[in-house]
């Protein structure tokens, strides 16, 4: 492409020498404009090949509108670059969603809107994040409720029963030896009586 501009330039220069007029001067100026703008366009293409889309867009925006044909190609390349950048951001966003990192997902969405504020996918992506966040919250609430309702392990119930019993009977001397007897089952009848009281308390608590 650059070689063609060079050949055309030489022809116009020769023609200007033969007959210097305003029309030939304008054509030569236009040709020089196309030549410089084509260099900008080609530099941008090199950046695109390296997948440096952000830098390529900045370079393509430098193309002068007077070089209409190159400007049109530059606009098409800008659209291509934006689409590639958005694809990359969507992949990052989806990864954050899979990890339940909703704040990061919203940040990725904002970056997509910065690249292209009129992007139609952005609306759908926001709805997807919102719904995922709501569903995750509901699931976490359900899990917490299940944990509360989950029966205590025998060891937990035993220790809790002893603690509750001593608190309800402050006149009973609380010492390590007595607790140890309860844990070891030496005071079996006493222990089960305590456990029953405690389990009743826990059962009533869960029904509240």
């Amino acid at each position: 492409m650059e070689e063609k501009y060079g050949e055309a330039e030489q022809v116009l220069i020769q023609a200007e020498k033969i007959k210097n007029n305003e029309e030939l001067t304008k054509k030569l100026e236009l040709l020089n404009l196309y030549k410089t703008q084509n260099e900008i366009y080609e530099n941008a293409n090199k950046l695109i090949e390296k997948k440096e889309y952000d830098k390529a867009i900045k370079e393509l925006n430098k193309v002068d509108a007077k070089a209409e044909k190159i400007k049109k190609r530059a606009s098409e390349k800008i659209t291509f670059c934006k689409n590639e950048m958005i694809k990359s951001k969507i992949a990052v966003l989806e990864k954050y969603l899979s990890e339940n990192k909703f704040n990061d997902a919203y940040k990725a969405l904002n970056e997509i809107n910065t690249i292209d504020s009129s992007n139609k996918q952005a609306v759908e992506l926001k709805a997807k994040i919102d719904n995922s966040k709501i569903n995750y919250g509901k699931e976490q609430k359900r899990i917490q409720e299940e944990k509360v309702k989950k029966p205590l392990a025998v060891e937990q119930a035993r220790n809790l029963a002893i603690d509750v019993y001593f608190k309800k009977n402050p006149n009973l001397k609380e010492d390590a030896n007595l607790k140890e007897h309860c844990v070891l089952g030496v005071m079996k009848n006493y222990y089960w009586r305590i456990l029953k009281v405690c389990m009743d308390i826990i059962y009533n608590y869960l029904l509240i």
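Confidence is low (pLDDT under 50) at residues 183-187. Residues 148 and 206 are 8 Å apart (CA to CA).
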